[in-house]
Design goal:
The complex is a heterodimer of chains A (about 120) and B (about 120).
Chain A lengths: L4 E3 L2 E4 L5 E6 L4 E9 L5 E8 L2 E4 L8 E4 L6 E5 L8 E9 L9 E2 L3 E5 L1
Chain B lengths: L2 E3 L4 E5 L4 E3 L2 E3 L5 E8 L6 E7 L7 E2 L2 E6 L4 E6 L8 E9 L12 E2 L3 E6 L1
Parallel strand pairs in B: 2-12
Antiparallel strand pairs in B: 1-4, 3-9, 5-6, 5-10, 7-8, 8-9, 10-11, 10-12
Classes of the chains: A mainly beta (about 120), B mainly beta (about 120).
Chain lengths: ~120, ~120
C-alpha cells in the first residue's frame, strides 16, 4: 500500500504566479489535511477536507489560498499570486474512515515551495 | 484554542544515554490525544508515540516512552539508549477527540519543535 504522495516535491514560482500542490491520499483514505511549515517552525494546520467537501478551513489564509478534494483525483492546494512569505514546506496528511479512536494521520513527504 | 509549547529548542545527548524532551499544552477539553512526531532531515513526519488523555497508563514504544501528567498538562518524551538515527526534530502535537460526522477529526496543533543532537 503506497503511502501519501505529494507532487511536486519542489516548486519554484516567481511573485505573482500561481502554485498548485497535489496530494494523493493513501488508498482507502477519505480524509485529507493540509499543513504549512515555515522555516524553524512547527506545522500549522490549514484545512481539512473530505471527498467533495471542505470540513474545516479555519487555518487557511482568507485570500489567495484555496483547496479542493474532488470525487476523482488528488487533493489540490492552490495559491494564487504567490508572495515571498508563502515560501514554506506544505504537508498533506490522510486518514481513513473512523476505524479506531486515533484516526491516525499519515503524512506525505511535503512540497517545498520557493517564491523568488 | 489549544496551544502546545516546547521549551527546549535544542537538546544534545551522548549516544546510548537517555534524554527527555519536554512538552506542555493548554486546553479546556477533557478528552483529547497527544502525539510525538519525529522529522529527520528528509522532512518526512514520522509518528513516534501517541497517548489518549483518558488513559492513565503512560504509552511506550520500544525505547520511547512518555510521562503524561494530565493535571499539569505535561507530556514529555523519554528516549532511552539514544542512537545516531534518533537525531531529528521532534514535535509534540495535540488533537481534539473527533467531532465531525463521517469519522473525521480536527487537525493537529504542533509545538515549535526540539532539535535533538546525538553525540557519538
Amino acid at each position: 500500500n503506497a503511502g501519501v504522495m505529494q507532487n511536486p516535491r519542489h516548486l519554484v514560482r516567481r511573485r505573482g504566479q500561481e502554485a498548485r500542490l497535489r496530494c494523493s491520499p493513501m488508498k482507502g483514505h477519505s480524509h485529507v489535511y493540509w499543513y504549512r511549515q515555515l522555516p524553524e517552525e512547527g506545522l500549522k494546520f490549514m484545512v481539512y477536507l473530505q471527498k467533495e467537501n471542505i470540513i474545516d478551513e479555519s487555518g487557511m489564509p482568507k485570500e489567495r489560498f484555496s483547496a479542493e478534494f474532488p470525487k476523482e483525483g488528488p487533493s489540490i492546494l492552490r495559491i494564487q499570486q504567490v508572495v515571498r512569505g508563502d515560501s514554506a514546506a506544505y504537508f498533506c496528511a490522510s486518514s481513513p474512515l473512523k476505524t479506531s479512536s486515533y484516526n491516525e494521520q499519515f503524512f506525505g513527504p511535503g512540497t517545498r515551495l520557493t517564491v523568488l | 484554542a489549544q496551544t502546545v509549547t516546547q521549551s527546549q529548542p535544542e537538546m544534545s545527548v551522548q549516544e546510548a544515554e537517555t534524554v527527555t524532551l519536554s512538552c506542555t499544552y493548554d486546553t479546556s477539553e477533557s478528552d483529547y490525544y497527544l502525539f510525538w512526531y519525529k522529522q529527520p532531515p528528509s522532512r518526512q513526519m514520522i509518528l513516534v508515540i501517541r497517548q489518549e488523555a483518558y488513559k492513565q497508563q503512560n504509552a511506550t514504544e520500544n525505547r520511547f516512552s512518555v510521562n503524561f501528567q494530565k493535571a499539569a498538562k505535561s507530556f514529555s518524551l523519554k528516549i532511552s539508549d539514544s542512537q545516531l538515527g534518533d537525531a531529528a526534530m521532534y514535535f509534540c502535537a495535540y488533537r481534539s477527540r473527533g467531532k465531525y460526522s463521517g469519522g473525521g477529526a480536527d487537525g493537529l496543533t504542533f509545538g515549535k519543535g526540539t532539535h535533538l543532537i546525538i553525540q557519538p
